[in-house]
Specification:
InterPro entries: Depp_CoAkinase, P-loop_NTPase, Rossmann-like_a/b/a_fold. This is COASY synthase. One of its GO terms (biological process) is coenzyme A biosynthetic process. Strands 3-5-4 form a 3-stranded parallel sheet, with helices on both faces. A two-stranded parallel sheet has the order 1-2. It folds into 2 domains: 103 residues, Rossmann fold; 112 residues, 3-Layer(aba) Sandwich (Rossmann fold), CATH 3.40.50.300. The radius of gyration is 28 Å and the shape is elongated. The chain is mainly alpha-helical.
């Protein structure tokens, strides 16, 4: 349930930082650092342990440890409760205490490693894929990046463009799904077409096999246009990105 689990540092790095901290506090201190593969670790099996340091918010976890120890025939640990350090610089959406969750949130928007160089890709513009479901905030982020100077490509808008009469997929879609998907003015009725493919994987694949290659071609044209305009960054806003 941790916030931004993808940004949690690997165990080896965290253990190295902990060793550095312990040596800094007291070089003569003897310690073992053990990775936890479950919520309890050695706390419920090690008979040599005598004390468990908890905070106000982890006291219940300490009590659960003691319950397990009693079940395992081991004596209870003394629970020594410490106060949490408050973070004077925390923002409104961060925890009041000094927290690794807050630190991970502050990493958002920074490059954790330099972009991988691919000789097959042109150096400019640098293309960023922006994806997520309905209501996830794609439009707001795209607008923000556009204000910063990025060239925006709206895949949804291109998706509509492929269906219009004279559009690159119009004739193929009508041939595949019949004239009954057309409005009186000759435009494709997206609702009728949607009803034909909804819940039918075979028909849906037939449609995407027609539409997606045309959309990909239009996206590449837009990227070339961004390059021609001298744009350094191009943002592709697409709900179904990899396909």
């Amino acid at each position: 349930d941790k916030v931004l689990t993808e940004l949690i540092e690997p165990y080896e790095l965290r253990a190295a930082k902990l060793r550095e901290f312990l040596e800094d506090v007291k070089p003569s201190l003897r310690y073992d650092i053990v990775p936890l593969g479950d919520p309890y670790g050695p706390s419920v099996t090690d008979p040599n342990l005598q004390c468990l340091v908890v905070s106000e918010e982890t006291r219940r976890g300490g009590e659960a440890v003691n319950k397990k120890r009693l079940e395992n025939g081991l004596p209870e640990l003394a629970l020594y409760e410490i106060l949490l350090m408050k973070d004077p610089d925390h923002s409104q959406n961060e925890e009041e205490k000094i927290s690794s969750s807050s630190l991970r949130q502050r990493l958002l928007g920074t490059l954790l490693r330099p972009p991988r160089q691919d000789p097959a890709l042109p150096s400019h513009p640098y293309v960023i894929g922006l994806t997520g479901g309905t209501g996830s905030g794609k439009t707001s982020i795209a607008k923000l990046l556009g204000q910063l100077g990025a060239f925006l490509i709206d895949a949804d808008r291109l998706g509509h463009a492929v269906y219009v009469p004279g559009g690159p997929a119009y004739e193929q879609v009508v041939a595949a799904f019949g004239a009954e998907i057309l409005n009186e003015d000759g435009t494709i009725n997206r609702k009728v077409l949607g009803a034909k493919v909804f819940g039918n994987q075979e028909r849906l694949k037939s449609l995407t096999d027609i539409v997606w290659p045309e959309m990909a071609r239009m996206v590449k044209e837009q990227i070339r246009e961004a390059g021609a305009q001298g744009k350094a960054v191009c943002v592709l806003d697409a709900a179904v990105l990899l396909e």
